[in-house]
Amino acid sequence: MKKIALLAAVSILSVTAALASPVTLTAADGTPVIVDVPDDIVGIVLDNQGQINAALKEHNVSASDIMEKASSIRDAYANIGSSLGGISNPVSTVLDGMDDMSENLLKSIPVSQSMQTVYAEAWIGKLVPGCHFGVGVNVSAAKLDVSPIKEVCQALDVDTKDLPDTLAFPTICGDIRLGGIVFPFDVGFSFVKFDASKYDSIASGIDPMTFDYLSVGGDVRYALLKGGAFRPKVSVGAGYYFTKGNFSISEDEADIDIGFDSSLFFLEAQASIKALCFVPFIGTKLMISNASFSWDADANWASILSSKGNNDNLIIAQQWGLLPEHLGDKYSKTAVHPMIYGGLGLDLLILNLTVSGGFDLTTQLPVAAVSARIAW
After folding, report:
1. Residue 125's beta-bridge partner residues?
2. Which of 27, 29, 107, 342 is the most buried (most CB within 10 A)?
3. Is the backbone peptide bond immediately before 208 cis, with ω within 30 degrees of 0?
4. How far is it, in rounded angstroms, from Cα 169 to Cα 141?
């Protein structure tokens, strides 16, 4: 995969693998220089050869400079692992870690979104007559693996403090549901704008990471069975959620940023039954998510590593453009998420409380939610 123009140059100067193939680079004066490259990165080198040669020309790197400094720079790069807690190739670690973190977001966001407009009753009744509607707050959370970000931070010498390997990705939204008119249907809407930095208990638990996002969505359900006292309600429906957000970590010598947006379309079916004030329910959803991600990582490698005793040769490598200060990538992906969910509602006159949970069969991730609404 093409990541950045100069990634190959960093790999050339890393520890030589057991199997290697020769690659020809061009010095600033046009002199060809043959360098042995490990077989597993030959494709990357060839894909980016033009940009590598352009960087060597821009920094006026001669053939003799390459031959004189290559060994010293390679040795310095080989010793990086002892400076960064065992991370022997920080550039590749950043590239792989940021991609892995984006993948983890792709898994967790749709699961957390899926419980936004869940009501215990499969159909709340008609708006007219009867005036059936509800408004309140729903909180859901799905597991998010942030261990890739911790590895990226280690590669950039960023202190993650007590950041755990997993977090609960929250969706805290206000919602409203209105009963239908004439036909037996209802519609629900949800909205949330969340900034973790505004919640001290959350911010302290994820420090030095910050994240914020906006999510809006809604669904419509049609009652196949209208139900009644001790008689089941069954509905089918469809909906859409949109989420846009950002994860970031920023320190003096490094900045990490992941921007994302996710569109989630779903079909659903739900059954419920009311027994006195209790409303047990069960349902299923088929979700199709389309997510786009872009990430950037900026690192002053020479400054990061100078305090670790890898100063002179790595500063030269950065000046020549062999240690890239900016890394980035972007991509989009579509995925299918079948899930099951269920829970228990408690109908106390105008107060409606719901506890629910679900499980995504594709990602194998659980989700839990609670809600409190005024409904009648």
Report:
1. none
2. 107
3. yes
4. 5
The residue count for the chain: 376
- Residues 135 and 240: their CA atoms lie apart, in Å, by 19
Place of tokens 């031959």: 67
Amino acid identity at 13: L
The pair of structure tokens assigned to 65 is: 């400079």
Q: Which of 62, 146, 42, 134 is nearest to 100 (CA)?
A: 146
Strands, E assignment, the chain: 20-26, 32-38, 133-145, 166-179, 185-195, 210-225, 233-250, 254-272, 278-299, 326-348, 351-360, 366-375
Rounded mean pLDDT, 115-125: 91
CB 318 within 8 A of CB 76: no
Sign of CA pseudo-dihedral 16, 22, 28, 31: positive
Q: Residue 220: what residue type?
A: V
pLDDT in tens, 222-272: 999 998 778 999 999 999 999 899 988 888 788 889 999 989 999 999 999
Cβ atoms within 10 Å, residue 252: 9
| Nearest residue to 52 (alpha-carbon basis) of 322, 257, 331, 278 | 322
Biggest alpha carbon–alpha carbon distance for the chain = 88
- As a whole number, mean pLDDT of residues 134-150 equals 91
3-class SS string, 98-111: HHHHHHHHHHHHHH
Residue with tokens 């047990």: 280
The number of beta carbons lying within 10 Å of the beta carbon of residue 63 is 17
Question: Would you say the C-alpha torsion 204, 169, 214, 134 has a positive or negative sign?
Answer: negative
79 token code pair:
């010793």
Q: What are the backbone angles phi and psi of residue 94, rounded to the nearest 5°?
A: -65, -45
The gap from C-alpha 18 to its chain's centroid, in whole angstroms, comes to 35
Q: What are phi and psi of 4, to 5 degrees?
A: -150, 165
Q: Kindly report the pTM of this predicted structure.
A: 0.77
Give the SS3 label for residue 67. Answer: helix
Strand, helix or coil for residue 181: strand
* 3-class DSSP state of 273: coil
Please list, in sequence order, all residues whose beta carbon lies within 8 angstroms of the beta carbon of residue 108, skipping any fewer than 6 positions away. Answer: 142, 143, 144, 145, 169, 363, 365
